Amino acid sequence: LDQLRHEQRVVDDGGALRLLTAAEFKERVSEPTSEPMRTLYREGSYPGCHDNAVFAMIAWYEMVGLSWAETKENVVEWLEDSGAWARGGFEEATPATLVESKRHVYEAGYGWKEKAESAKRVIERQT
Predict the structure, then answer these.
(1) pLDDT by residue (tens digit) across 76-126?
(2) In angstroms, rounded to a whole number, what is the distance separating the alpha carbons of residues 85 and 57?
(3) 72 alpha carbon, distance to own chain's centre
(4) Which of 9, 14, 17, 68 has the lowest tally of Cβ within 10 angstroms?
(5) CA–CA separation, 114 vs 112, rounded Å?
(6) Nearest Cα to 96, choosing from 77, 68, 113?
(7) pLDDT given at position 123
(8) pLDDT at position 37, please?
(9) Burial of 55 (0-12, 13-18, 19+ CB in 10 A)
(10) E strands within the chain?
């Protein structure tokens, strides 16, 4: 139950806990609410940080459990809606091409996940 709460997969529904549907969960995690992801999501990326921003957005959606298709859809939408794409500074011709070129970030589980697993391996060798 603690894990479900931590992952925001349950809600208090009139005194009873209710497991979110897949659609409700996707909607809930599609807009990051904690810093620094909230600022990145709301403000969009600017030239000079595009690579890190796109990397972070992909890693975020992988972390919260969205599929690659959902992640790609959300990041493309974010690039367009936040104004990041219109600001320019990208080598790729389209937002979809850009996101597809970063698929390895999703597949490798980069971001918090990779760093946490690496740290855990070191800790386990020490104990």
Answers:
(1) 999 999 999 999 999 999 999 999 999 999 998 887 555 446 556 766 776
(2) 14
(3) 10
(4) 14
(5) 6
(6) 77
(7) 64
(8) 84
(9) middle
(10) 10-13, 16-19
